């Protein structure tokens, strides 16, 4: 661990005075949000932050234990990026929504106080039909056309966004500042499993929904602690296909990709996965955006060397600036649904090698990521 710290310090000093060369799309973004954006860009020159969905909410065989994560149990550090979800912010009773909001608020504040980073997905329950966030042929309606300006449920959608906006103003850390959140709505939109997926909405309506969502939160509700991440699944093989439903550079802070299929779920196609990541990273550089591997993983991690023989080579095949990589959750009750190791899991030795690699950063490696002048990046 001492050698790791020394190497990381030398690497940090080598690009301490670099800059990302870009700013968030929100001109009124909080100082902490601007600093996070800039510092993620700086760190991505030589490192990638490791993230885990729902890491501190629950894990393999446990839930609701403050300051615990399976990643910490294995490495001694929480992941640098903790994923949460706004799924409970609508489609439930008022009491259930309030409970969900408070739980996520506390999680975000705790992560901020420790110096970690939060990203929020949105498994948005269909507001105009049954079926939840998935598309169910017998139940679902193509809700995007209902939610955009002029749609039959537009006012209802504004109320849902009001709930998110109100929540965003409550995530104050111990320093009295609002915790920044990387908000990733309508992810994997190029597939057909969610009601906002490509088969159920036009390109124009999807872009309209994205732009309205950002504008209403930022400009009408005065939410200035969000960064906005655009992340399709892996169903593209060119920049043009990746950008087919892109809402425009004025509406996106981060571009990413979710890819399980090429990483072992359907096949091991590492060259393909790396090439797709390169498309994302190259566009980010050109458009002065951040880039990330927004979701990936191998359920149950049966391959004991997946971390250093699959994930790490995929991210490092090309010179790419990736702010973070996030693997999916560890279910608390399922014996097989997990994507990060826990004590005794077969990939633990390899994960420790992944953790010790200077390229990867975990929460304990971060320092002052929400400050510009005092930022050192890593220990």
CATH superfamily name?
Glycosidases
CATH architecture: Alpha-Beta Barrel
Q: CATH topology, what is it called?
A: TIM Barrel
Q: Overall pLDDT, averaged?
A: 94
Largest sheet: 8 strands, parallel, barrel
**CA-based shape:** globular
Report the top-level CATH class: Alpha Beta
Could you say which structural class the secondary elements and strand pairing correspond to? Answer: alpha/beta
Query: Could you tell me the number of beta strands?
Result: 13
User: Rg from C-alpha positions?
Assistant: 20 Å
Oligomeric organization of the protein chains: single chain
Q: Domains counted in the coordinates: how many?
A: 1
- Could you tell me how far the N terminus lies from the C terminus, measured between alpha carbons in angstroms? 11 Å
Strand order within the widest beta sheet: 1-4-5-6-7-8-9-10
| Helix content bin | 25-40%
How do the SSEs run, as a string of H and E?
A: HHEEEHEHEHHEHEHEHEHEHEEE
* Helical segment count: 11
Low-confidence region ranges: 6-20
Strand content: 5-15%
Task: Give a structural overview.
With 379 residues, the protein is of the alpha/beta class. The protein has one domain: TIM Barrel, CATH 3.20.20. Helices cover 35% and strands 13% of the residues. The strands form 3 sheets. An 8-stranded parallel β-barrel has the order 1-4-5-6-7-8-9-10. A two-stranded antiparallel ribbon has the order 2-3. Helix 9 (270-287) packs across helix 10 and helix 10 packs parallel to helix 11. InterPro entries: GH (IPR017853), GH26_dom (IPR022790), Glyco_hydro_26 (IPR000805), MANB/E (IPR016714). It is found in: Secreted. One of its GO terms (biological process) is substituted mannan metabolic process.
């Amino acid at each position: 661990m001492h050698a790791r710290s020394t190497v990381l310090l030398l690497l940090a000093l080598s690009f301490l005075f670099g800059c990302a060369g870009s700013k968030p799309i929100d001109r009124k973004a909080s100082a902490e949000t601007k600093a996070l954006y800039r510092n993620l860009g700086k760190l991505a020159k030589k490192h990638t932050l490791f993230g885990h969905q729902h890491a501190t909410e629950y894990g393999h065989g446990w839930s609701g234990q403050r300051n615990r994560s399976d990643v910490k149990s294995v490495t001694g550090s929480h992941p640098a990026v903790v994923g949460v979800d706004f799924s409970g912010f609508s489609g439930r009773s008022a009491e259930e929504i309030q409970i969900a909001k408070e739980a996520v608020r506390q999680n975000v504040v705790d992560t901020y106080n420790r110096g970690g980073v939060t990203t929020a997905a949105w498994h948005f329950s269909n507001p105009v039909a049954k079926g939840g966030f998935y598309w169910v042929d017998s139940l679902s309606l193509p809700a995007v056309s209902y939610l955009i300006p002029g749609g039959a449920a537009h006012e209802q959608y504004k109320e849902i966004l009001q709930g998110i906006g109100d929540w965003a103003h409550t995530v104050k850390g111990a320093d009295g500042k609002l915790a920044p959140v990387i908000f990733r709505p309508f992810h994997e939109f190029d597939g057909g499993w969610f009601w906002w997926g490509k088969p159920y909405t036009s390109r124009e309506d999807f872009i309209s929904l994205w732009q309205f969502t950002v504008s209403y939160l930022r400009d009408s509700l005065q939410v200035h602690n969000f960064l906005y991440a655009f992340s399709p699944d892996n169903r593209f093989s060119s920049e043009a296909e990746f950008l087919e439903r892109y809402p425009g550079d004025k509406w996106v802070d981060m571009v990413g990709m979710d890819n399980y299929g090429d990483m072992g779920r359907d096949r091991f196609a590492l060259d393909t996965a790396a090439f797709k990541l390169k498309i994302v990273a190259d566009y980010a550089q050109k458009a002065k955006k951040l880039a990330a591997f927004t979701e990936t993983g191998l359920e149950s991690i049966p391959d004991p060397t997946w971390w250093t023989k699959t994930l790490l080579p995929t991210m490092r095949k090309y010179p790419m600036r990736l702010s973070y990589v996030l693997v999916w959750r560890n279910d608390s009750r399922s014996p097989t649904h997990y994507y990060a190791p826990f004590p005794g899991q077969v990939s633990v030795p390899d994960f420790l090698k992944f953790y010790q690699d200077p390229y990867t950063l975990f929460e304990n490696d971060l320092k002052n990521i929400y400050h510009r002048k005092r930022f050192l990046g890593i220990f």
